[in-house]
């Protein structure tokens, strides 16, 4: 999706030349886009937007993306938002690598439907992240940040939805019904992908595509949250194969502070309180 001239109130980006990506290392949507860029060998200027420091809620950033989310691509001054649209756009740029989108209309329809589902699951993915990976006190946004987030930037209903989610999270965290529903939604999506792999090595066609890219990032995040991906043997095999590709491994690398310090501490607390994913949603995972 390309933002209109009126929506871009941070005017300086309109004079940026070349390809610029505004992103955050640990953001799943940013990881998707960076993995494609690396797979295709496309160079870009990187602008790190620190979500932990709430840089995405600054008037400067909201002037580029009123939704206040990453990633954003700026190409020769044109502002693109929505990671799956960005993937489709990047795929049209010159590269020696093959396209990641299928050519036949039937296959393209399947890809579009699957990417729409992946996008629809984004709030559920956030509930996995904030419910099972990060401690609430580190993840929540303070009131003043939410107020700033609410005030700046062009009108955008998606920003209202974002703020409502963060306000509810600040109030009650990820509730158990929310966490269970998020696990169930992903289990259903993975069951459907597993089915696709019954008769095919790849999720669509006879080579890697944007579906591997998008769903790999989701699988990786779910595993960090404690999801036993092995319950989908074909999908797990595909995930392990993809992890051997440098672009996939490098762009989704978990920082040591998370894997060695934060996550073990979070997990320990979850064990004590009986709140690991398998405690909260064991029946869903076993079904
Ligand atoms: N549908 C959007 C979702 C973007 C999104 O929600 N990005 C997350 C990171 S993956 C974000 O910026 N969250 C803001 C936050 O965590 O405060 C897309 O695909 O680009």
Structural topology:
Layout lengths: L18 E5 L4 H13 L4 E4 L10 H4 L9 E4 L2 E4 L1 H9 L13 H16 L1 H12 L2 H4 L3 H9 L5 H16 L3 H21 L13 H15 L8 H11 L2 H6 L4 H18 L3 H4 L1 H5 L1
Parallel strand pairs: 1-2
Antiparallel strand pairs: 1-3, 3-4
The structure holds glutathione.
Please characterize this protein's 3D structure:
The chain has 15 helices and 4 strands. By secondary structure, it is mainly alpha-helical. Strands 2-1-3-4 form a 4-stranded mixed β-sheet, covered by helices on one side. Strand 1, helix 1 and strand 2 form a beta-alpha-beta unit. Helix 5 packs parallel to helix 10. The mean pLDDT is 96. Glutathione (GSH) binds next to helix 1 and helix 3.
Structural class: mainly alpha
- At the fold tier of CATH, the topology name of the largest domain is Glutathione S-transferase Yfyf (Class Pi), Chain A, domain 2
How many domains make up the 3D coordinates? Answer: 2
Q: In which order are the strands of the major sheet placed?
A: 2-1-3-4
What is the compact description of this entry?
The chain has 15 helices and four strands. It is mainly alpha-helical. The protein starts with 18 loop residues before the first strand and ends with a helix.
Features:
mainly alpha, single chain, 287 residues, 15 helices, 4 strands, binds glutathione, Glutaredoxin, Glutathione S-transferase Yfyf (Class Pi), Chain A, domain 2
């Amino acid at each position: 999706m390309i933002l209109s001239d009126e929506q871009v109130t941070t005017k300086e980006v309109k004079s940026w030349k070349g390809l610029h990506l505004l992103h955050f290392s640990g953001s799943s949507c940013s990881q998707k886009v960076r993995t494609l860029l690396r797979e295709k060998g496309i160079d870009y200027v990187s602008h790190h937007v620190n979500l932990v420091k709430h840089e995405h809620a600054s008037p400067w950033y909201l002037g580029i993306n009123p939704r206040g989310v990453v990633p954003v691509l700026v190409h020769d001054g044109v502002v693109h938002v929505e990671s799956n649209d960005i993937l489709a756009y990047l795929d049209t740029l010159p590269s020696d690598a093959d396209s990641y989108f299928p050519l036949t209309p039937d296959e393209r329809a399947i890809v579009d439907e699957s990417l729409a589902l992946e996008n629809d699951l984004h709030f559920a993915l956030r509930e996995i992240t904030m419910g099972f990976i990060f401690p609430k006190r580190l993840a929540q946004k303070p009131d003043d940040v939410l107020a700033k987030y609410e005030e700046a930037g062009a009108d955008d209903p998606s920003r209202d939805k974002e703020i409502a989610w963060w306000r509810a999270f600040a109030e009650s965290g990820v509730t158990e019904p929310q966490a269970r529903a998020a696990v169930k939604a992903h289990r259903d999506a993975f069951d459907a992908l597993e089915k696709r792999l019954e008769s095919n090595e790849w999720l669509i066609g006879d080579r890697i595509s944007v579906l591997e890219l998008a769903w790999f990032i989701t699988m990786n995040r779910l595993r960090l949250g404690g999801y036993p991906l092995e319950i989908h043997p074909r999908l797990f095999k595909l995930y392990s194969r993809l992890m051997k590709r440098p672009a996939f491994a490098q762009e989704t690398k978990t920082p040591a502070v998370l894997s060695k310090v934060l996550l073990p501490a979070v997990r320990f607390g979850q064990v004590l309180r009986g709140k690991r994913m398998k405690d909260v949603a064991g029946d869903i995972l076993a079904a």
